[in-house]
Amino acid sequence: MNNLMHYKWRKTKNIIMASLCFISAIVAIVPLFIILFYTISQGISSINWAFFTQMPKPAGETGGGMANALAGTGILILIASCFGLPIGIFSGLYLSENEGSIYAKSIKFLVEVLNGVPSIVIGVFAYVVFVIPMKHFSAIAGGFALGILMMPLITGTTLEMISLIPHSYREAALGLGIPRWKTTLFVIFPAALKGILTGILLSIARVAGETAPLLFTALGNRFWSTQLDQPIASLTVFIYDYSKAPFDDWNRQAWAAALVLIVLIMIINIIFRFVTREKYA
Amino acid sequence: MQIINLIKRKIFKQQAGIISVEAPAASFSIKNLLGGKNVGDLVFQNVLRFFASILLLIVVLMVIQMVNQSMPSIKQFGWNFIKNNTWDPVKEEYSAWPFIFGTLYSSLLALLIALPLSLGVSIFLSEFAPRWLEKIVSLLVELLAAVPSIVYGLFGIFVLAPWLRTTIEPALGNKFGFLPLFTGPPYGLGMFAAVIILVVMILPIITSISRDVMKAIPVTQREAAYALGATKWEVVKIILGGAKSGIVGATLLGLGRAVGETMAVTMVIGNTPQISYSLFEPGHTMASVIANEFSEATSTLHVSSLIEISLLLFIITVILNAAARLIVWGVTKKYKGRK
Questions:
Q1: Residues in chain B within 8 Å Cβ distance of A46
Q2: How far apart are CA B149 and CA B157, in angstroms?
Q3: Is there a single domain that holds both residue B51 and residue B189?
Q4: Which of A177, B75, B110, B137 has the most beta carbons within 10 angstroms of its beta carbon?
């Protein structure tokens, strides 16, 4: 009888724990839907053509848009890519070419650690390197900060995507007498290119959502500016400023900008998911 | 793996051999100087190494520059910078303890809630869920990680904080007001909101890493346990035992994320440099004080103190991440090839 009780207790415990795990899975994904729901319901009403094409209106007036912030984010991403892409991709190639060497291993470790450094600290670094010598905030400082944030992400995806290419590719190419560098550059790299490109897109999505490193590097700008040595507006700082403002219309615009940002990021993430899955699963 | 490497090396040697056979007379050629290696290979390898070294250089430069810039504050305050409680830009007195406290308090509380929750999710994903459900839930958790922190902050200001102020905090204050955690008037913006947001933000990272670690444990262990008549939960306990150190690593990474989180926390924590254990009170963190005051700081000492705080933040996160990576690497290496 005692044995049967014990057996039942074990079964019950199993069911209890399984349902607890199930509940925590639900608790974990509910915030996503709540946030999406609020962003869409609060933001959708302010989204119209003017919002994308007009400049911000003076404080207190309703209407206006965020054209300068969109352009600013684009420019910042371009600058960041100039820093981040070559260093990220080539470092990734280096790591995949030299898996055994101690130097490569320590660089890999460094990349992982750099990935965990808070973006605000990177922002402080960009401030020290660019803003202090130039004596004013500038687009280039913001782009530099975002570029450093991109590097570990791109190095990581490049390494991962190349490691997914079967070894037989490399062996076949080397077997034909092709030098190693040509093998890497013209056989392995193109084969991994699709994955690497979506990885780049993903890292762009990630830095496009960064605010903290821009606060005291690119600063923000209420006017149209494409000059690299001047402060520049960005989507995220736009959201931050407008969320603190005491005007309802500005708060609504902050939600709208957040909606634009989140839709972009979700789309890129889902694309990444499908591209990487269909090819290598 | 080893065999493939061996073949690779052999192919490489053969190839180098062929080249040197083809050009035996060119004793002064570059190829000979390089010991028979392909010139292209050598150039390519060095170009790659150059770019990889830039990464190293950036990190080194980062440390040097930040130490350099925080020198005025280090000289002025010394160790008192960490110990004292005053942060007063008017009197030019700076010390970081309220911020360090706020960072640790909010992160550890968030971790306390997020850890069991994400363990539950990762157990569900790796052991209980059917494959199709696992895919969907993993995707959703990943999307949760992709939401920018400014959007969390926006949500925190306009939705979470008012809700806490009008509903949750008064109720908690009435029922559990005797606990030091729930004392004081309900502001809405404060430690409570920050902790909730942090939980949501670090949950995905802990979940995805612990799930990977659990999945890396060989199927044979599960099969052995089932063969002895274990229930599913008992199998999970065995898996958890094997994944222990990986989960510790995931926890450290989550903690690192929470410690460095800036925007969402800045927007909801209330930004008051004080030490209070009550969840209802506003606080301040290291990251949030940098975000708040950096662009407006004018005096050298103020800027330098803020840079010293970011240096501290850098050191803390580097230690957390390095430890976590070492642990996670160790675990996955242990089980690799045993599957």
A1: none
A2: 12
A3: no
A4: B110
